[in-house]
Design a protein that fits this description.
Strand content: 15-25%
Shape: elongated
Structural class: alpha/beta
Helix content: 25-40%
Strand order of the largest sheet: 7-8-9-10-11-12
Distance between the termini: 145 Å
Number of strands: 12
Number of helices: 8
């Protein structure tokens, strides 16, 4: 009679076996591990090579270097003036250009610039986008004219007044207003009045005369005057003045200091 399986053989019947019917060898698992490590090493080496190539392309090659500067938005300033102050390092790697330093330099040395954007334009260009300040009032001083923008910033002195910009006359030296409002505040009030004038009236305005905080007078073309009063309620005064001038086109003097009770006189 054939002998039955031994106890050792019975224990072995529950083990998993490979294709040949034998349990997997420990060497097979080690081989898989070595293959994974090799694959990860190759990937890491590729990443390092790519990073190194990128760094070389940006910093060491001639592919991404500054070759030209493009300037736009200039009016009174010239492109040559702007680019001279900008001092963009032509020939340097584009990635190394300090755009913030260029912006600060242009704002500091060219106060006519209201804002400036310095941008990299790959692969070889730096662009300078200039926005110049526009004068809304002029202050005459020693035969020259100081330009003041819409934010009440005096930004440039010129020998000839720009056309269409009214002159500001501050007659507030003896005014009690100076005890409460300094010259800068009064200048801001005059700019505020100028900014709230209707376009048609603004074009006709030759002088904005400020005697005190609440006494602003406009001198218009053809000898007409407007007593504006303070800078308060500007939009309302602008609408009232427009209607008053249409209703009394031959008047020479208009008073909208109290917009609820406007008046006109003269011819």
């Amino acid at each position: 009679m054939a002998a039955g399986p031994t106890t050792a053989e019975k224990r072995g019947t529950g083990r998993s076996r490979g294709p040949s019917g034998r349990p997997p060898r420990p060497e097979g698992r080690s081989g898989l591990l070595r293959s994974s490590v090799l694959r990860l090493s190759l990937i890491a080496a590729g990443v390092l090579l790519l990073a190194g190539g990128t760094v070389w392309a940006l910093y060491g090659s001639s592919w991404f270097r500054v070759e030209r500067v493009k300037t736009s938005g200039t009016g009174v300033l010239t492109r040559a003036q702007v680019e001279s102050v900008a001092a963009v390092p032509v020939g340097a790697p584009l990635v190394t250009v300090d755009t913030g330093a260029i912006e600060a330099r242009l704002r500091d040395e060219l106060p006519r610039i209201a804002s400036i954007e310095v941008e990299r334009s790959w692969p070889h260009e730096i662009t300078l986008k200039v926005t110049e300040r526009k004068p809304v009032l002029l202050m005459e001083k020693n035969g020259r004219f100081v330009e003041v923008d819409a934010t009440a910033v005096p930004f440039a002195t010129v020998t000839a007044p720009p056309p269409g910009v009214p002159r500001l006359v501050l007659d507030a030296a003896a005014s009690p207003s100076l005890r409460r409002f300094d010259a800068d505040r009064l200048l801001a009030e005059a700019v505020r009045v100028r900014g709230e004038l209707p376009d048609a009236i603004a074009k006709d305005t030759r002088v904005v005369r400020l005697s005190s905080y609440d006494s602003v007078t406009l001198e218009l073309a053809r000898g007409r005057t407007v007593f504006w009063g303070s800078a308060e309620h500007g939009p309302v005064k602008a609408r009232v003045l427009t209607a008053l001038m249409k209703a009394t086109p031959k008047a020479g003097h208009f008073d909208v200091s109290a917009p609820s009770a406007p008046a006109s006189s003269g011819s």
